Predict the structure.
Amino acid sequence: MSLSTRYLIIGGGVSGPACSMAIREHDTEGGITIVCGENHPPYDRPPLSKPALFKDEWQFDDAYSKFDNFYPDNKIELIIGCQAKRIDRTHRRVQLEDGREIEYENLLIATGSGSRRFENGGNLPGVYYLRRLEESAAIKQAIHESQPLVIIGGGYIGMEVAAACAKLGVPATLIERNAHLWPRFAGSETGEFLKSHFGKLGIAFHLGDAASSIEARDGGLVVTTEEGVEHPAKAVVVAIGAALNTELALGAGLEGSPEHGVSVDSYLQTSDPNVWACGDIANFEDIAMGKRWHIEHHLNARWQGLAAGANMAGANEPYDRVPYFWSDVHDISMILRGDPENPAGVRYVGDVQAGEFAELRYDAGGALRMGLAVSHDEKKLDPVSDTLEELIRAKAQAGSITAESLGVG
Ligand SMILES: Cc1cc2nc3c(=O)[nH]c(=O)nc-3n(C[C@H](O)[C@H](O)[C@H](O)COP(=O)(O)OP(=O)(O)OC[C@H]3O[C@@H](n4cnc5c(N)ncnc54)[C@H](O)[C@@H]3O)c2cc1C
């Protein structure tokens, strides 16, 4: 069977529905179809490693990003539980796994990421990954029934799982190959604060040594590190990063790479003028930070979805946002604005030991590139985020920023 639509969106994560909203604002009539590979309407992932793990009453539809009537009310067709298999750009057609074909005028590829797998024992029963609703539910059950847990990876998802264990009083050990926690975007003082705070809440940390294997032994699991230290567990959560879902786009001959994503310009348009890409997989020309990269964060995906949708419907507006990331770990909230990569220097303002501080990263000329703020009071961080955005855009000297001027500490 062959269908046709003006706007075809592949991916029912964060950016897909955002794109459909923006299209509808600019084009009230054109047909919109969203192909969702999972057995759910589009949903948000941040709750999966936060309330979904520790709140008894939490349900799958708490993560759904739109009310059920949003799609029919906006004349958006959802195809659920069906993967797009192939894009034929010459005939502007997408083939679905059930054999259907959809002709499009404009196509958005928003296929997001999967979990990077752990090679040596990573498929054993009792080993979990966290990307999808069902995986979150399985980890919640493991937290309650399969103690102790070992968590591999001290990035934000690993730390959020550890925080859920701390909140529920469940014994857990976190293994991280780097010498400190949150290594991809935070410095050693921020990492030390987290280690000390969660150490007091019962989480054990094994840092500076990578997990090298997981084995089934004596009715449980054993995680062994490169230095030969063994950590027995009943369940292991692997949180070692994301793998971009680029096969569909690259298989269609679009420019890009599996590691860095699908190349788009600052309008989120690919090398094919009828095809856009956004969210985790988009390797985009970042106007605000003056570099080309891809970002694996919720608001980046949402904002890019909105921008791509507007542009698909003819708005012709470049994407220009200062990157924004957040994480919540038990009683601590964090927001990050800007670019954490390759700073020339780092300084801290506020009270690090009290968990009321900001880490500032700057370039060789001293201009602020990133601000990461931590507080026990989530509400304090909204104005801090706005101030950081202004300072980054103004290329303010990081050395002149104080805890008072930022509103931390
Ligand atoms: C557990 C967890 C917690 C997170 N917490 C935070 C947070 O606190 N803060 C933050 O900033 N970010 C967070 N993130 C990151 C954020 O969720 C991602 O950056 C965001 O989901 C990316 O959105 P996306 O639309 O690009 O892709 P995704 O949300 O990954 O959605 C892509 C969708 O496309 C589907 N798909 C893939 N291939 C096909 C195909 N061929 N056909 C049809 N469908 C397909 C996938 O199954 C998926 O449903 C978290 C991520 C996870 C996993």
The chain has three domains: 2-114+243-312, 117-240, 331-406.
